[in-house]
Amino acid sequence: MSAAPTRVLLLHGIWMVGLTMRRFARGLAEAGFETEIIGYPSIAGGPDAAAERLADALAQGPAHVVGHSLGGLSALQAARAAPELPVGRIVCLGSPVCGSGAANALARVPLSHLYFGRSADILHAGCVEWPAGIEVGMVAGCVPRGLGALLARFDGPHDGTVAVEETRAPALADHIVVQASHSGLLLSADAVRQTACFLRDGRFEHARSRPAE
Description:
The chain has about 210 residues and is of the alpha/beta class. It has helices spanning about 20-30, 45-60, 70-80, 100-105, 115, 120-125, 150, 190-200, and strands spanning about 5-10, 35-40, 65-70, 85-95, 135-140, 175-180.
């Protein structure tokens, strides 16, 4: 790709809608990016639906991708399945690339398939591989506030839904932890700033990381 795109596509997480990404998109817009939120049916359609809509948006031109939780996993899966897509950099926000312990715990509950629908497989398995040419950064949270903590036993830092260790993968270009819960990542000024930094430079500003406002 001859020049880094300034366009950014945003994918929401499971049980959410595009509106939940609006504040994060506004923060990136203030940082100089052209943002577009991609909505998709996370239960009925899952990552396949997200990938289809992402491909349609990328057909209009190259773009970076930012995905929260399932949205990040969906972006990685789409890049792996179709390496020809004109994807710039990808930033995952609290995405369990190694698989979600909370999702695995909930799977033992009767009728749990109704909670995850077609997103169940990727939440259980994660996604730790993608084309080598795509730089992927991970912003993880460490404020333990969320329903996931009631389902899974986390041995280390977590964001209330996803353990920090579940967000680490060897193929990541960079990884950073900010003071935010899982849903709080979408409201974190620090997460927005770090995301903008990675989209511009391919790395986070570790020395400047600070608690979210």
